[in-house]
Amino acid sequence: MIFDNVSNCKKYEALHSDFEKAFSFLKRADLDSIAPGRYDIDGNDVYALVQEYETKSLADSIYEAHRKYIDIQYLIEGVENMGYSQIEKLNVLSPYNEENDFLTLSGEPRLILYNPREFFILFPEDAHMPGISHGEKGKIRKVVIKVRVK
Fold first, then answer.
1. 2-148 sits in which CATH class?
2. Could you tell me which residues are beta bridge partners of residue 7?
3. What is the pLDDT along the chain (150 residues), one digit of tens a residue?
4. Alpha carbon of 6 to those of 17, 112, 121, 145: distances in Å?
5. Which of 150, 148, 146, 149 is nearest to 39 (CA)?
6. Less packed terminus of the chain by CB within 10 Å, N or C?
7. Which of 132, 92, 93 is nearest to 109 (CA)?
8. Residues 6+ apart with CB under 8 A from 74
């Protein structure tokens, strides 16, 4: 897991051959105004999901993890907590679904508060619990970029 500000994204581009494409999307001038939905960057190898939602309570949250894709989660607007843990420290709630690239887990939460212009890079070994409120529920605008593991 990596947590940083988008102003520092250049130093992470060497970690994966497609990270430069992903971070270029986050530097779009119209990022604040593009509609929610899927945006293909490089077909199914790199794509962005622009999302808007309301944060939820910790009690309503579960850990998730992916095997085929690395998540780059970038906050555009709002404030949320992200739960984080290594998969081996958690209990599997439902078996890995290969079609959806989704594994659900439970365990002790470790929360990290993040603000606009900050991002997480979440690798397959990183379980994460996004969208948790920081106090009151709030509106979030976020981009999740999916980068295929190579």
1. mainly beta
2. none
3. 999 999 999 999 999 999 999 999 999 999 999 999 999 999 999 999 999 999 999 999 999 999 999 999 999 999 999 999 999 999 999 999 999 999 999 999 899 999 999 999 999 999 999 999 998 999 999 999 999 998
4. 18, 17, 11, 13
5. 146
6. C
7. 132
8. 6, 26, 118, 119, 142, 143, 144, 145
Query: Which residue's structure tokens are 């105004």?
Result: 33
Which residue in the block uniquely carries the two structure tokens 């992903």?
Answer: 22
Domain residue spans of the chain: 2-148
CA distance 130 to 84: 9
**Under a CB-based contact definition with an 8 Å cutoff, are residues 111 and 64 in contact?**
no
CB atoms within 10 A of CB 16: 19
**Contact yes or no for 145/47 (Cβ under 8 A):** yes
